[in-house]
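Record Aminomethyltransferase folate-binding domain-containing protein, 337 aa.
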Amino acid sequence: MDSGSGLGFDMESVNYKILMPGADSDNLCLHLHWPIEACIVLFATSWIFATTVPIPLATAEIVELSGNDAIVFAQSQFSSDVGLLTPGHYQWSAWLSAQGRVRQLFALLRPDPDRLLAWLPRGSANDMVTALTRYVMRAKVALRVVPDLVLHDGEAEPSASGVLTPADSGWLLALPGSTPRSAVLASAPASPAPDPRRLVEWQLADVDAGLPWIGPEVADMFTPQALGIERLGAISHAKGCYPGQEIVARLHYRGGNKRGCFRVSIEQPAPPRPGTSIVSATGSALGTLLYAAPSDAMRSRGLAVLPQQEAEHLAPTLESGACVEILGPAGKSPSTD
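=>
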């Protein structure tokens, strides 16, 4: 019998199993000594509490910058205003090439006055350390890969955006998007092991939030405006020089950006690799897939960089022939796709 409780189980059978020791008859119509409401509340409370435990998803790609010059060095290299980042806070930032293309996109955490952590949701910490080390020169800053932290799915209701909250020997930070989400970067738990199914759900939530994460396959290909990372607060137009700053400023103040980031649905259950080309009906190149995850048994959902002006009139496909449906601009709340 359905209780209507919304807890997803048969209340009569559960009551029978739980409460039978307190029955004073053997027939199916049991007379119970304990109030049913108290049992339901107790069970529901335990169930809700269990869902707030952070769930491990995958190894976190993190670069540490430490030393007396860590803040100054980061300010000279990254696109956000690191000088405004106070200890105990984080901001979204990027590292660009001299041509104004995004090489890495990350959350920049400042847990201590002379230490920064760059969490790369889809990037490579090893690649970033190797490339960034060339610019250290005489700066008193040490770069290293942090090897022992894991990305967890955190609380459903995160703390205020920009506030770095200590959590489980690590840190909790809010993610952009219309649905409240938070990431916990903490040591790997003894159990449970990372859950691939939850990781797929997490990646789809990233897609729906329009988070244009950059992996090695698409690094150094797109401007900040094409990816739309200004809405994340990852670009400062008021700070001094940094690599690619002139290109970014020109596109911001004079215009000229012709591409944007879009949510797409692909008629292919196995998600295409990041960097997969998207083409027109005639086979000409239209855009590039940033990343995707399986959404059901027939389709994948992802983010792609495509022409802005023509997006509504395109009939794109992959080079394999799989149809690509444009769902809308990244960052806008999706309807039921």
